[in-house]
Structures are given as C-alpha cells and as structure tokens.
Amino acid sequence: MTGAVASSSTCSLGNPPPSSRSAVGKVLCILDYLSTLRRGASVAQIGDALGLSRSQAHRIVRNLTEEGVLRRHPRSGRVIFGPRVAGIALRLLGGSSIRPLWHAVLRELVEDLGETCNLVVYDHCVGTYFDRIEVNWPLP
Questions:
Q1: Which of 13, 43, 63, 103 sits in a 20 to 30 Å window from 77, CA-based?
Q2: What's the rounded Cα separation, in Å, for the pair 136 and 140?
Q3: Contact 101/112 with Cβ under 8 angstroms?
Q4: Which positions ≥6 away from 49 have C-beta within 8 Å?
C-alpha cells in the first residue's frame, strides 16, 4: 500500500502540509486519505502519508474512534471508517441528488434481466433500501 493520496484530494502535494492546517483540516485529510484505501491503514501509515507526527496521528485517530467516526479492524487493527460515517453516508445517499442516475441504471437492469431489482446498501447485517423497480409482468 502506498502513502499517496488521490490527486483530487485537497491534502495532496502543492497544498500546505497538514501540520500547518487547522484541527478540522487534519481530520478531513485523514478521512480523505482513508477513503482512497481499500483495507484501511495503520496510524503510522496515516501519519507518514499526511506529514503528521505520530503523536498527532494517534491523538486524532483516538478522538475520531471515540466519536464512532473511525474504528479498528477487529483482525488487522488497521484504522477503518466507523459506524458514524456509514450512517452519514447512508443518509446522504437516501436524499441524494444522484438518485436519478442510479435509478436509470436500475431501470436498465430490470429491462435486461426481466426481474425486479433493488438497490440495497448493507452495514454489517442491516440493509437499507434506496430504490426498487419492479418488472412489468402482464396480469393474468
């Protein structure tokens, strides 16, 4: 895993280093960085990637973990997004202005498959339905 941050990130090279940013800026850089990774990161990796001291990275991660924004993966111990971020993301998607985009894809899928299709996002064992399109079966 590399320490590179996505080029669209506001935490990328060419911007002031996180150490010269506000506390909120550092938090946003950590969240932005984690969003570019598939498997989370250690606190040391977060600090190294963003130019934060280990003590800064540990303190911010600890505070975000206490708030439910981040959590540790139960097996690897890597820092990953927590239940609070999942809840925020689900609420954002539920009222999202991109609904017409996914609705069109879902409608196309129903037409291709000839089956009812649902868009569901799972958080652990709980599913949240965002959209459902039923196939147009002729009535007997």
A1: 13
A2: 12
A3: no
A4: 3, 4, 5, 33, 41
For residue 112 the two structure tokens come to 């291709």
Beta strands in 28-116 (DSSP E): 70-72, 79-81
Predicted confidence (pLDDT) at residue 103 exceeds the cutoff of 70: yes
Burial class (CB in 10 A: 0-12, 13-18, 19+), 15: middle
Q: Is the pTM of this model over 0.90?
A: no
Listed residue (21, 34, 27, 110) closest to 73, CA to CA: 34
Give the integer Cα–Cα distance in Å for 52 and 45. 10
Note the pLDDT of residue 127. 74
122-33-76-87 Cα dihedral, nearest 10 degrees:
-30
Span 84-98, pLDDT tens digits: 888 887 777 767 777
Work out whether the CA dihedral 88, 94, 100, 102 comes out positive or negative.
Answer: positive
Residue 15 corresponds to which tokens in the numbers above? 């911007």
Q: Quote the pLDDT of residue 19.
A: 52
The C-alpha atoms of residue 95 and residue 64 are separated, in whole angstroms, by 25
Residue type at 81?
Answer: F
